[in-house]
Design brief:
The chain is mainly α and 128 residues long. It has 2 domains: 95 residues; 31 residues. Helix content is 81%, strand content 0%. The protein is built from 4 helices and no strands. The longest helix has 34 residues.
Length: 128
């Protein structure tokens, strides 16, 4: 990849990480507002789940749509996904999801990570 295109990619990645992280940090203020009693759990839950889904989908799409040869170097684009996971799960709890929902979402996430790891490892072995 030519240096100018690489510079543009890095700048865009940094913008995605910064904006996603700021949005994720903003969701923690919604959690604080619920705990202080100034926002209802239902309203906060709806906002938390919606924002968590949007940020996560966008960051994963941005990471996956980039140049395949740089996927391992561009993992920083996924930082907002990890930052917003906690408020997203609290949002599900605020909407009435019990412990079973938390366990199932954790199991699905773990399974997806395991499958992705296996696919990634198989792809790497195929090149060698």
């Amino acid at each position: 990849m030519e240096p100018e295109r690489l510079r543009k990619l890095v700048r865009r990645d940094l913008v995605v990480v910064a904006m996603g992280s700021l949005i994720a940090i903003w969701t923690y203020s919604l959690v604080a507002a619920v705990e202080l009693g100034s926002l209802s759990e239902l309203t906060a839950g709806r906002a938390l789940v919606a924002v968590a889904v949007l940020v996560s989908v966008f960051c994963i799409y941005w990471w996956a749509a980039g140049p395949p040869e740089f996927m391992r170097e561009r993992v920083m684009v996924l930082i907002p996904v990890f930052l917003i996971a906690g408020p997203g799960l609290l949002g599900v709890h605020y909407l009435g999801g019990g412990i079973v929902v938390g366990i199932l979402s954790g199991a699905v996430g773990f399974a997806a990570a395991a499958v992705f790891g296996l696919m990634w490892g198989g792809r790497r072995r195929g090149r060698a």
